[in-house]
Amino acid sequence: MFELIDRDGLGRRGRLETPHGMVETPALLPVVHPDPARQAVPPKELREEWGFGAVITSSYILRRQPALAERAKAEGLHRLLGFPGAIMTDSGAFQQHAYGEVEVGPEEILRFQGEIGSDIATVLDEFVEPEATYEEARQGVETTLERARAARSARGERLLAVPVQGGLFSDLRQRSAEGASPIGDVLAVGGIVPLMESYRFADLARVLSFARPHLAPERPVHLFGLGHPMLFAFGALFGGDLFDSSSYHKFAKRGTLLFPYGSLPLVDLQEEVCGCFLCAKTPLTQLKDLPPEEQSPLVARHNLLQCKLEIARVRQAIRDGELWELAEERSTGHPALARAMDEARSHPEVFLPTEPLSRRSFRVIVPGSLQRPAAVRFREHLARWSSGVAVIGETERRPLSPSSLRRAPPLALASKGGEGGIWSTSCALGPVPLELTEIYPAGPLVAPEDYAPHEARPAPTPRSEEVEAEDRERNSEAWVHRHVGSILSWTWGREAAAKLLATPLRARHSRSTGRLREVLREKRILFVVANDGLPHPTFAGGEELRAVLPAPRARVVAHADAVPFVSEGRSLFSRHVVRADPELSPGDAVLVVDAEDHLLSVGRALLSGAEMGRFRRGVAVRVVSHAGSRVEKEGSSEGA
Ligand code: GUN
Ligand code: ZN
Fold first, then answer.
1. What are the residues whose beta carbons fall under 8 Å from the beta carbon of 552, sequence distance 6 or more?
2. pLDDT at res. 87
3. How many angstroms is it from 96 CA to the middle of ligand 1?
4. Tell me, what DSSP letter sits at residue 447?
5. Which of 17, 354, 411, 514 has the highest CB neighbour number within 10 Å of its CB?
């Protein structure tokens, strides 16, 4: 059972419930040897000292050691390993990759995983190498799926991980992902280790782009063998929830330190470049000269710590809406990873369905940053929004802020009456109408100092001060009208905006910043304009939107059981969603309605329209405002 807690695009924070506890995702599962005598770092220590909630081990290797296998059956894997958390077991496909064959049947290895008490058992897949021909890859996919179907019926309490294969073939990855989705509790993308070992990260991005859109969104996604901290942000960006790593000890055996920006062989080190508490105790320059049996356990722990820290940064980045920034920062560490990010950005269709309405920031990390899905979507939306609208003027290099325009509107507005033309300007995204420069992602891209201090243009003929002031007043009103109209039409389309504006709306601006803050009808606040520059409806605004937007637009229909709760402001759970506008993106304003299209509350989508109802756990819509919400009274801020 998987629950999504919050997200940044495809990147997500979630909770996976297993028979041995809840695993917070994204999570790294350290690879441990099934033989308790051969642990690089004892599982007990992984749990108690390092806080790992889950590990992965090979049931195949375990089964090949009869005495140990018997012990595992008798006392259970958890006791054998001394690990009370969740244990995932792999099936042996990786040994097929490494040694060319496996000596166990698919039913046998699955039964064994059950007998030893694995929490997440993996179907024996056919490892499809990146070099596989189409026919070989197709065979691998079909065989894996047949075994998965058989495994599904034989499955007990434990969760079932179904591998996704298909090599580098787009249609086979799709077929494999679609086939695995209804069967697996965990969907595990496999066959990618050889790509990572040879730094073919762009191919890895391609594989993930092929598979990701076809994986059931309500299932956790495991990325097999993605264990270098340099790749965690990248993996999470594609919606990876679980990773496993043997890198921490594999690299340690070679005397190589892992960092989120790459690997550093100890032999090359002359300086104390790591300040972690372990390296503070044993300086790298000393560690370097230790005999391997003393060095490698210390390096393994440094590596584990780096992995753990990077997973924490990924989780924080998801909370902050900065996962693209983090992944791009990591991509500067290696040209192959930089190319992989280019590849990711060249598949906006993979990301757009779950691309959030807005984020707090948009930091340009690499030249390609301006091709992120958020920027692609903004430009595409702008092209549609402005089609048929003439550009009547362009400001010089620096744009004028919407708030300064209100105080000193350009005279041209008067003649145009606030209708028609667009004043475009240049921001990093290209020309943007002035009234949209505060909207995400343009808003965070325009630094305050990018805005030119506005100087009212001299009137063509000298006029009395009174006439000037009247003009300014009229222009200011025209500007505000146009600003409000533009953000409404940007969000809900021209037709809906025209209907909302058919009777006059008022605007209220912040006293301190001059920014548009609220849109009102008489004394009722309909929309609150947040820092993302976008109008967010109140319940009253929701009522008006319901009247002007034909169903199913912006709607989520709540099941009758949930009606009393959502009407009182409680969140709408995914399992109570009857129907949802398929176009909804996370962050979008949602009209929560009953079967008769009565408005129950207004909220923000956590899930995309397509995901709603599919998750059996967790929230689909966070309710923001309902009929009984505190009536927003006219405050003390300045009217306009
Ligand atoms: N470990 C690394 N890659 C794979 C894979 O493709 N399948 C399985 N079962 N385990 C793996
Ligand atoms: Zn260190």
1. 579, 580, 581, 582
2. 98
3. 9
4. -
5. 354
Gap between the Cα atoms of 37 and 30, Å rounded: 17
Largest CA distance in the chain: 101
CATH 3.20.20.105 in the chain, residue ranges = 2-349
> Is 586:357 a contact under the CB 8 Å cutoff?
yes
Query: Is the model's pLDDT at 415 over the cut of 50?
Result: no
pLDDT of residue 410: 59
Q: What is the mean pLDDT of residues 369-381?
A: 96
Query: What's the CA gap between 211 and 205, in Å, rounded?
Result: 10
Alpha-carbon torsion (260, 606, 622, 328), positive or negative:
positive
Ligand in nearest proximity to the CA of 109: 1
Q: Please give the CATH number for the structural domain made up of 2-349.
A: 3.20.20.105
According to DSSP, residue 182 is labeled T
364 vs 397, residue with greater confidence? 364
What does R_g of the chain's alpha carbons equal in angstroms?
A: 28
pLDDT score recorded for residue 406: 75
> Which residues of the chain does CATH 2.30.130.10 include?
538-635
Estimate the share of the chain in helix, then strand, then coil, as percent rounded to the nearest 5.
45, 20, 35
Give the binding-site residues of ligand 1, using a 6 Å CB cut-off: 90-91, 93-94, 122, 125, 127, 163, 190-191, 193, 224-225
Q: Quick one: tokens of 84?
A: 């009370």
d(CA 471, CA 475): 6
CATH class of 538-635: mainly beta
Mark the residues whose beta carbon lies below 5 A from ion ligand 2: 274, 276, 279, 302
pLDDT in tens, 154-166: 766 789 999 999 9
Going from the Cα of 439 to the center of ligand 1, the distance in angstroms, rounded, reads 44
What amino acid positions are annotated as catalytic residues? 90
